């Protein structure tokens, strides 16, 4: 049962499944029936399924047949009507074909006309499009042509503007054309070409200003000179000073034009070789000498191209190189003023151009860059001037150089450059100028002293007298009362030297002009230089004259008189300096003139030279002395050489009556110098005679020789007593021979007992006799006594005398030993 039920259930399920598959086949597209049929063949009941499928097909056939039978009559009627329509359609077709043939025949001409119209419309449209495109392209081509014309005519900045318009306004409208692409490709090349050409113009500009710097600087310095002259005129005429322009306005104005003024003052001659010009003639400015437009154009072009910084760096680099070239002085610059002038002109020209660029461009150069260049220029210029000015030995050239430096400094100061260091350097050059002046005046003084006749100046009339008094401050009431002809006490070199000292002061004053120094500083500078002139230059010249081999006593006497008068004139030199500097001598820190000391030293040197010459003459006479130290008897008179020596001294001291007694009053008699010279000569003569008596070569001497020597000393004493030079009191001059006199009296009188007994006492008769000297002379006489009395030694008197000499010699040695102990 159960098996029957299960089989029945399976049969029902299979039937249901087959039914489902059949429905699916009926409702499914034939393209997708494969999987459904696969499920049938996968199972075991396909036989049954085929049976069911066959049954279903038969079912559907019966339904189709039923439906066809129901609609058959309608179908037949439709076929009949369709056959009737086919005949009518054929007729309609024939009519349409005829109509079409007729229409085609009639429309051929129209088609031809329409084709022609079509072509005309096409051409018209093309022409219109072409005109429109050409309307767009022509401005581009015109701008490009304009660009080329501007490039050709070297109008690079307008060309750059045209290029900008072409690139940003016109070309974008026609960018799809091939020629526009070519233009676009050429635009960078055109920009580079403009940059290169403008840079070439800049290089030409830099070369131009390098060549014209000299002329620009000369023009600027000429303007500064004219402005200085104008300022001087205005300062002298204050009432016309209204409306005066400042130096900055005159020198740095855009046109840089100033009317020429009167010729330069004398002290500025040689600074600028400027010919006299009409007052209405204008001096050309920097822009008249150099065309600045290339640098402006190049700056604008590089600014537009976005390369302004590159341009600025290039310009500044090139100008720095030019600055270094300009600041390199020529090796022979120190030889002439023109060398310095050209050097300064180039420097001024360089900075005038830079100042012009600074004020006419926006940022191409700035103040910091200018200041840096100026610092470099200032240091190099000062170093060059220090080096080259040290070669200058001509004070006129140094003075002209100073004036040129002042003008150089004033010119640049007018453009706002600090120039204090230049004025500080001028103070250094002032020392060198003083040295060159001292060298020049050394030659002047030498010429004056060499050409002087060292004789009082004779005057024959009032005119000559006043002329000399006008040259030298001399007043002497006694001399004025004397009738003509008469003589000044001094020689010609006194007024000449005095005037040359004043000329030296004037020369020093010239250097101090325009240095912006105070009166006190000028006064101090002049006094220091004048002191150097007096204490070094003039003093050396006087010393050289005094020390010359061929100078005579007369010349030395005149030099003493001359230096006395020059010493008195120093107060007038003080007044002279005070008058030209307006600084009173009583002012604190005022330097005093050392002229008094200079002339005193020269006078003392002349006096010493007189004493030295006299002593040398005395020595020359003493070389002629020829004593017979072994003579037994003296002569009847003094030696010839000594008589001649005394005669020379008498004639010499007669000359000294012209010497001054003191600094203030001239005395024709007892001059202090004459007294000193006479005393010095007598002392030197006394000392020389003593040395002659005691010299080692004289080993022996006799009493007769000593008596002859005594005659010569008496001759000297007689000369001293005769008063060869007035002014000695009593027997002062004789005291020069007191040592010789006491020594000779001791030996000739043989007064040893008195000498030995009174030795060391203030009242001793032979106080000036030294035991050592006496012993030396006694030894020489003892040797002579021994030699001459060898066979007479047995005589009692001779033996006693020899014993006495030995005793005296022993006592003298005892005195000498006790004195040393």
UniProtKB/TrEMBL annotation:
It comes from Calidris pygmaea. The keyword Coiled coil applies. InterPro entries: EXOC6/Sec15, EXOC6/Sec15_C, EXOC6/Sec15_C_dom1, EXOC6_Sec15_N, EXOC6PINT-1/Sec15/Tip20_C_dom2. Component of the exocyst complex involved in the docking of exocytic vesicles with fusion sites on the plasma membrane. It holds the Pfam family Sec15_C. GO terms for biological process: Golgi to plasma membrane transport; intracellular protein transport; vesicle tethering involved in exocytosis. Keywords: Coiled coil, Exocytosis, Transport. Belongs to the SEC15 family. Residues 50-120 form a coiled coil. GO terms for cellular component: exocyst; plasma membrane. The lineage of its organism: Eukaryota, Metazoa, Chordata, Craniata, Vertebrata. Residues 421-780 form the Exocyst complex subunit EXOC6/Sec15 C-terminal domain. This is Exocyst complex component. Residues 52-221 form the Exocyst complex component EXOC6/Sec15 N-terminal domain.
